[in-house]
Design a protein that fits this description.
This protein is an alpha/beta fold. The chain has ten helices and 15 strands. Helix content is 29%, strand content 23%. The protein is elongated and about 70 Å long.
Length: 411
């Protein structure tokens, strides 16, 4: 058994912790940016394949102080990196450093690389080359106040890169953040789901894969662990077979997407086809002003990410979009729960609706609100739960804090 660390967008660690437990893995420590867990290599393979919310699965290697380049070099040399790859394979170093004597992250990466390749040169007479795009071995090093942690990246490309998106519309959500929004909403995976601004279809595809119990990594061609000398192909094939056997073949409900852009809907359909879920999603070219659920549906959930001016469109022009959204929700989706992600509180006010739950979320570096609206039928009464708020923080793309994958838990 060894320690591994599932890094994630800040705020999703509760979801990551629960999914690791559901996979039968023992969690040890949770931070805002991830979860430390215990597993063998088969468990590492399973976490990479199945995690919907994690960004990477890292294997902690070293935790040491270094006040100059000599101490850094000597500490890195204490770990045997020659056991991971052959000398004819490639490496890359991902580095971040703050408030340390060694304060240039490029220089930090260079010194770590020197220490590692010198091991290979001393042992084999040759050394690995550097490949930043697609290395066989990626090492992460984080430094803060002269304390450094090193970890081996078992994922390769970030886990949000599922492999089904051939193209996107403008400002798409990363797949693991889209899955995180669904997880935070509490959707039961049994009820109809609607995205009123579906764009390239990421939310709907992630939801369909959840409902079908389809492993989110099942469409990927490779993971970082496959390049390691200790890769156990038989164990990996067993993990794949177990995942495939647990998939459902059909759903007794549909997911629905609306968008005003015919071009982006074609992209969404192709992405859904790539993911193997197109038959479970109905997509319609429709402006928000006339969007409506099928007449036979009286309730369900809406999760949507309308444009909010920070990346797409002009705020003044978007006011009408939000007014139409509010009108559509009030008049055509009575009995539904609606979750809306937006980075513009003034535009949200144009809907003239009262949120019953509020969560603060970061989409990249954009501070957003993820709000729940309960669309009651009948009188326009104020729900009793209006005064209660649930506040959390989600950061997409900021995978780990500086102590994120420390090998020795600290208080």
């Amino acid at each position: 058994m060894a320690n591994f660390y599932a890094s994630c967008p800040m705020g999703l660690s509760d979801l990551v912790e629960q999914e690791l437990k559901d996979l039968g893995l023992k969690t040890r420590e949770k931070t805002q940016a991830g979860v430390l867990f215990e597993a063998n290599w088969a468990g590492c393979y399973k976490a990479n394949l199945h995690s919907r919310y994690a960004s990477r699965i890292l294997k902690p290697l070293l935790d040491f102080p270094a006040y100059n380049e000599e101490e850094l070099y000597n500490n890195v040399r204490k770990h045997d990196f020659t056991k991971y790859i052959r000398p004819d394979q490639t490496i890359a170093i991902d580095s971040t450093v703050k408030e340390s004597n060694i304060n240039d992250q490029r220089y930090l990466a260079m010194k770590v690389k020197d220490a590692i390749v010198d091991q290979f040169r001393d042992k084999f007479g040759v050394r690995p080359n550097v490949s930043n795009d697609n290395p066989d071995l990626r090492i992460h090093i984080r430094g803060y106040r002269n304390q450094f942690n090193m970890a081996l990246d078992t994922s390769g490309h970030s886990l949000f890169m599922r492999g089904y998106r051939g193209a996107t519309g403008e400002a798409p959500l990363k797949e693991n953040l889209a899955a995180g929004l669904i997880g935070l909403s509490g959707w039961d995976k049994k009820s109809p789901l609607v995205d009123l601004f579906c764009g390239s279809g990421t939310l709907l595809i992630e939801a369909a894969m959840m409902a079908l119990n389809m492993a989110p990594g099942s469409h990927r061609q490779s993971f970082g662990f496959m390049n390691l000398l200790e890769f156990d192909e038989a164990a990996w094939e067993k993990v794949l077979d177990e995942a495939h056997n647990k998939e459902l073949d059909t759903l007794d409900f549909k997911l629905f997407g609306f968008d005003h852009d015919k071009r982006v809907l074609e992209i969404a359909k192709q992405n859904a086809k790539n993911a193997g879920v197109l038959q479970f999603i109905d997509m319609k070219n429709s402006p928000i002003a006339v969007a409506a659920p099928p007449t036979e549906l009286t309730k369900g959930m809406i999760i949507t990410n309308p444009p909010y001016g920070a990346r797409i469109g002009d705020e003044d022009n978007l006011k009408d979009v939000y007014r139409d959204l509010g009108f559509t929700l009030k008049n055509r989706f009575q009995g539904w729960d609606a979750w809306i992600l937006s980075g513009n509180k003034d535009l949200l006010a144009e809907m003239k609706l009262k949120a019953t739950v509020k969560k603060m979320i970061f989409n990249g570096n954009i501070e957003c609100r993820f709000l729940k609206y309960e669309m009651y039928t009948g009188s326009k009464r104020t729900p009793k739960s209006t005064t209660s708020e649930s506040v959390s923080t989600v950061r997409q793309g900021r995978e780990v804090n500086i102590d994120g994958y420390k090998s020795t838990p600290r208080g």
